[in-house]
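User: tokens in, sequence out, please.
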């Protein structure tokens, strides 16, 4: 099934509120396409819509703990890879422990739907860490903040839009 990509700025109804605000405020050049929300999870999405896993990137919210404090960060890695959360990410965030943020916490803190979380529109003080492989993609599909749509932009545009730090994160 073909995806119908349109400028994200033209369809804020297909974006979570924080994502729509960021797209408008920063003039982010991304496309958005409506999808079946039941197919939002990466494997189902890629299989149904014919998107290669190396053209899709996942965003995970990491809770990094040190000295009784928790910091949150977004980590972006291609769907064909896994992120080194307990190694590179934990050390980069100078945390004693790093793990995926609990489902309910990730949803409430981001204002986005689980399975659609995107780094575009996250709280400004959250670091965004993007695997170097993502930056090499001329077109990468990511979440929109909602399960019923996806965003697409180049890896370089993703880094620019989020002020991300580029690291070697993939296992």
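Assistant: Sequence out:
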């Amino acid at each position: 099934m073909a995806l119908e990509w349109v400028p994200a700025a033209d369809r804020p109804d297909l974006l979570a509120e924080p994502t729509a605000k960021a797209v408008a405020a920063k003039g982010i050049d991304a496309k958005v396409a409506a999808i079946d929300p039941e197919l939002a999870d990466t494997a189902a999405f890629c299989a149904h819509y014919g998107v290669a896993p190396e053209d899709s990137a996942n965003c995970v919210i990491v809770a990094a703990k040190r000295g009784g404090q928790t910091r949150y960060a977004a980590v972006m890695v291609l769907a064909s890879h896994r992120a080194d959360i307990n190694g590179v990410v934990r050390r980069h965030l100078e945390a004693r422990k790093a793990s995926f943020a609990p489902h309910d916490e990730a949803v409430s803190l981001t204002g986005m739907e689980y399975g659609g979380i995107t780094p575009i529109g996250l709280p400004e003080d959250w670091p965004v860490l993007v695997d170097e492989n993502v930056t090499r993609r001329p077109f990468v599909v990511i979440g929109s903040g909602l399960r019923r749509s996806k965003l697409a932009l180049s890896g370089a545009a993703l880094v620019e839009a989020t002020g991300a730090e580029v690291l070697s994160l993939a296992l």
